[in-house]
Amino acid sequence: MYISQTAAQTIVEEIGREINEHINFMDEEGYIVASTDPARLGTLHTGAKRVIEERLPELYITKEMENATTRKGINLPITIRGEIVGVIGITGEKERVVGYGNIVRRMTEIMVEDNRLKDRKRYDRRVRYRFIEEWIAKSDLSYNRNFVERGYRLGIDVERPRRALVVHFRRYSQLCGTLEGQKRLEEMEATIRHFVDKEEGVLYLREPPKQICLVDACSDDKMRELACHIRELVYGKYQEKVLIGIDAGHGSVHIRQMCDQAQKAVENGRDSDIIFYGDLCVELFLDEISDKAMEEYLDKLFPETEAEEVDSYMNLIAVFFEQAGSIGKMADALYMHKNTIQYKLKKLESLSGKDIRTPEGAGIFYMALQFYKRTKNDTNICYR
Predict the structure, then answer these.
(1) Neighbour-count burial of 87, counting CB atoms closer than 10 A to its CB (0-12 exposed, 13-18 middle, 19+ buried)
(2) Cα–Cα distance between 341 and 327 in angstroms, integer?
């Protein structure tokens, strides 16, 4: 069939609403594949079959011509590029339906052609997606000539240096849980795709739960600008937040490595919404440490300490690193007196046996803060 059954049903329903008559859509063999009367679906329309076989410009079925599968009304060929691809039928009295004939036929042909083009675009997009998925999955740095030529035919130069950007929706898991949420996700994904499709030198791949943008090699500033546009577009239209990871920034043809870097950035950059792989430090190996080992580390550093007290110390530690250890700035951030800050740091040293103001202690407590965030899944520690 020239278009999908779903598209054909959409057409008959839309036209039926406009003219307030029953509409049938017959395929190239004369079978009813879409109708405003569900009882007629799947039956052979003998009038439509005659229109196709005899290439009639139109056929009106009179009351005398009616049978079990064919009702009175007008039937008109749908012609696309000189080929009859189906028949549109309007059920009703001749004096009512004949006047609609040419208008309905032309409307149908336009809508069929439009749907055909949309289907073709969707097919082309799926082909490109499959190629990009295969490209990303490749672990080697060299591509054989056949693969390179396949890319050229799709308008993709796999030998051009690129960069990778990965987008995650913060509420992805929550939205996936409902039909309404899934629809919202689809709309947001389509919005991002439409945006990046207009950007020169950007290839897009939807790969739930993430979306990947492969960008012609450029500076960090350009990548950040693209990321900011995506973040603001999604928040401005849907009030939803995203996390965006960006690769190390060397510009390479090794797509898989760049995508892995961008993915690692988005998974580990917990304190920001746009994260560069190059800004990650201890986050690079946190995934290699088990939650059990992290919890044992914290228990050893804070022996026999209630959870609420540990929370309080962690806020203090977070502010210490945020303010580069400045007691004055910590006091301002926490709305406390400097002496109170000094007292709390001393108490922390007494409890743990480690002084955060020494190089050794700073390293120990920085790791503790990262472990705490990971085990608590706390992306934004409250500093108040």
Answers:
(1) buried
(2) 7
210 phi and psi angles, rounded to 5 deg: -120, 165
pTM of the model: 0.60
73-80 and 162-169 strand pairing: unpaired
Task: Determine the longest span between alpha carbons in the chain, in angstroms.
Answer: 103
* pLDDT, tens only, 78-132: 888 888 888 988 888 777 777 777 778 788 888 888 877 877 888 888 899 999 9
Alpha helices in the chain (DSSP H): 5-19, 46-54, 94-97, 101-137, 145-153, 172-176, 179-197, 220-238, 255-268, 283-286, 291-301, 307-322, 327-334, 338-352, 359-376
Q: Of 117, 145, 174, which closes a domain? A: 117
How deeply is 180 buried, as exposed, middle or buried, from its count of CB atoms within 10 A (0-12, 13-18, 19+)?
exposed
Q: Which amino acid is at 148?
A: V
Bridge partner list, 164:
214
Residue type, position 213, single letter = C
Q: What is the pLDDT of residues 169-191, one digit of tens each?
A: 999 989 998 999 999 999 999 99
Together in a domain, 308 and 274 = no
Copy the structure tokens of residue 250: 């060397």
From 102, 117, 132, the end of a domain falls on 117
Instruction: Identify the residue whose tokens are 């790791």.
Output: 367
Specify whether 265 is located in the same domain as 340. no
Q: Are strands 202-207 and 274-276 parallel, antiparallel or unpaired?
A: unpaired
Q: Examine residue 153 and state whether it is found in any structural domain, yes or no.
A: no
Domain that holds residue 113: 5-117
For residues 212 and 176, membership in a common domain is answered with yes
DSSP letter string, 193-209: HHHHHTSTTEEEEEETT
Pairing of strands 242-246, 274-276: parallel
User: In this structure, are 211 and 192 located in the same domain?
Assistant: yes
